[in-house]
Amino acid sequence: MTTTIHTVTFEDIQNAARLLKGAIVRTPLTKSVTLSKLTGAEIYLKFENQQFTASFKERGALNRLINLSDEQKKKGVIAASAGNHAQGVAYHGSRLGIPTTIVMPVNTPFVKVRQTEEHGADVVISGERYDDTAQQAARLATEQNLTLIHPFDDPDVIAGQGTIGLEIMEDYPDLDIILVPVGGGGLISGIAIAAKHINPDIKIIGVQAERFPSLHRAIHHYDYTAKGSTLAEGIAVKTIGEKTCEICKDLIDDILLVSEDALEEAVCMLMTIEKTVPEGAGAAPLAAVNSYPDIFRNKKTALIVSGGNIDPRLLASLLMRGLVREGRITRLRVELLDVPGALARIARIIGDLGGNIIDVSHHRLFTELPAKETYSNVTLETRDRENLQDILSGLRAAGFTVHINRSSDL
């Protein structure tokens, strides 16, 4: 297969692989037995969250930095990034002795800002979205005579990201599908060029958050307005790159959209099943497999876990929300008579049935119940949904009126 029609060729990616050898991690591509059983697909995980900066972005950033002229290296570089590209540029720029300035959106997680500064970069906070941040970076590049390192729409960056495709095909050349998170399109463009050159029949499928369908919009020719925020902030790009869009239109086979709920569930699955930390963008491919099971059933599918830079507080919240979703943590509203021992009776029933109470609030004043009645909000931990159902049945059999204080059919 020829790739000379593109701004990046297979030979460019091979050259990048030679330049990056020893400077980046050749990450493992590992079959997940458990996820394969759960999804009905044959799942292989490419752990790019094991790079030094916990993201694939190092590959493209380093390849671009290596290919700068001596004069450009001396004057320094600037990049606009929500975090992962920033860290890749900052870390390898510092390692190579190249001054770096990074412009980051105002909503960038603090952990990414701190890590970028620790890698030696000067950080400028500007813009609500990446596109606004990119405009500020372009202005500063002109004013300060710095070389702009684009996070995705650059041939050297695309070639660097494409080295992932080379590694995947070397490890498992008989894959049916490679599933890739898509923001600006640099990652999927590079992977598609490499993988399709080696095996023209392999399918390359992109995944985007429903709220930021930049490539999906471009391919299907419809307008959209970016709405709100997304857990997958690493791929929250309003406009796909020009170079990457052309490559994607030619080489990718499909682009799928996933919901915020699906992203949350996928992050929790990778944490609890694979014991690996993914950011929202890194969990997007698994979210797609869960959301579109018929596409991937019985197919050998590689998922790019693109990064692991997630705010610890957000991760803690996601894990707790996951327990709620699974029915393992539930808040009950229990109506009871306002008499001594009533609350103790509820606690005893829950304890006897294997539930663990983690919070109780008792309400007498702010209620529409009769004066001799009250209610308690009881937050409890259970083994699973079946155990929760046993506790609900036990309380109701004892005469208590019980409601679930969350969205549930129970």
Query: How much helical structure, as a percent, in the residues?
Result: 40-55%
How many independent structural domains?
3
Shape: elongated
DSSP summary, beta strand count: 14
In DSSP terms, counting alpha (H) and pi (I) runs of 4 or more, how many helices?
17
Topology:
Elements: H1 10-20, E1 29-31, H2 33-39, E2 42-47, H3 57-66, H4 70-75, E3 77-80, H5 84-96, E4 100-104, H6 110-118, E5 122-125, H7 130-144, E6 147-148, H8 155-171, E7 177-181, H9 186-198, E8 203-209, H10 214-220, H11 242-251, E9 254-258, H12 260-274, H13 280-291, H14 293-296, E10 300-305, H15 312-325, E11 329-337, H16 342-352, E12 356-363, E13 373-381, H17 385-397, E14 401-404
Parallel strand pairs: 2-10, 3-4, 3-6, 4-5, 7-8, 7-10, 8-9
Antiparallel strand pairs: 1-2, 11-13, 11-14, 12-13
Helix pairs in contact: 1-8, 3-5, 3-8, 5-6, 8-9, 9-11, 12-13, 12-15
